[in-house]
Amino acid sequence: QAQLVESGGGLVKPGGSLRLSCAASGFSFSNYYMSWIRQTPGKGLEWLSYISTGSEYTNYADSVRGRFTISRDNAKNSLYLQMDSLRAEDTAIYYCARYLSSNSWDPPDYWGQGTLVTVSS
Amino acid sequence: QSALTQPASVSGSPGQSITISCTGTSSDVGSLDLVSWYQQHPGKAPKLMIYEVSHRPSGVSNRFSGSKSANTASLTISGLQPEDEADYICCSYAGSRILVFGGGTKLTVL
After folding, report:
1. What is the pLDDT of residues B53-108, one digit of tens each?
2. For tag attachment on chain B, is the N or C end more exposed, with fewer CB atoms within 10 Å?
């Protein structure tokens, strides 16, 4: 059974940085596209970014482009999200999610339990 | 990258059927058959229930079905059960390797 476990969330001041990690197990991590998605009570789910199997392709939502960077280490079965220039509106639960296939148009099927990021002074 | 539009809430009695709509544009929902639906219980991660408009992942009950007409997709749950009470969120491919989600619909089983 696929399992995804996020870590690295916490309280950070506006303008600060945070790096989220996602440890994958139970499936062949290197064969799947991966993504980061966040959720807030007010805005619901928001897709943030995806990365292809070998890191050849990435893309970002306009709201985080230029501030967030997605990466992966297939040798360590891990996905990362480097978040810089954080704003109050970035406060959310951040989910790591596996795409259904190696196609960027398919939806994520397995999700982690999420890690809470709070941006506040 | 505008969110898809869903009703805030729907309700039904056990055994009944309900339908949740998800309205987008010709650039997302209406462009390709790439709409999916998630079920989310409080404090839990979303669970994929439907993908590519009407396909169910392995293990998902056949009481859940999906359809689409023009720019609106729909999720129908038949034979409502108490455990179906949850939030339901639609998702669509929006082109340019971007996914867009709906605001979510809270289903109450009366």
Report:
1. 999 999 999 999 999 999 999 999 999 999 999 999 999 999 888 999 999 999 99
2. C
Tokens at A62, concatenated: 């306009």
Nearest CB to B98 within list A45, A57, A59: A59
Chain B residues within 8 A of A106 when measuring between CB atoms: 34, 51-52, 93
What are A12-38's pLDDT values in tens digits? 999 999 999 999 999 999 999 999 999
From CA A87, how far away is CA A78, in angstroms rounded? 25
- Does residue B72 contact residue B29 with C-beta atoms inside 8 Å? yes
Expressed in angstroms, the distance from the first to the final Cα of chain A is 40
Distance of residue B110 Cα from the nearest chain A Cα, in angstroms: 24
